[in-house]
Amino acid sequence: MVDEERVIRLAGEITRDVARLRGLSHAGELTQLPDQLDAVKYRFITAIEGCTSIAHHILASEGWAAPETNAAAMRGLAEHAVISNELGVGHGEGRRIPKPARPSIR
């Protein structure tokens, strides 16, 4: 059985991370602000981890196939119509956020 309190807690943490990311999006040129860039990366990671934690929990609680990867967990939710196919497949393609170019030091 899905632990609704756990899912709600994790969803709240994801919401908090997204709100902080929105705040950091106004920081301008992040490549010039290494600490801000680090904060953005951290918030992305924790938001993604929250999503995949929810996915693994739901799949296990419902007795559905245990995924071997986080991408497979998202695809599993899509297969059971918990999330859209677009979201499940898009997550499963392993997209990466490109690293920004570092300014040259002269």
UniProtKB/TrEMBL annotation:
GO cellular component: toxin-antitoxin complex
GO MF annotation, one: hydrolase activity
Stored InterPro entries: HepT-like, HepT-like_sf
Keyword Nucleotide-binding belongs to the record: no
Keywords, sorted A to Z: Hydrolase, Nuclease, Toxin-antitoxin system
Pfam families the UniProt entry points to: HepT-like
Family: Belongs to the HepT RNase toxin family.
Protein name, entry field: DUF86 domain-containing protein
Organism for this UniProt entry: Phytoactinopolyspora halotolerans
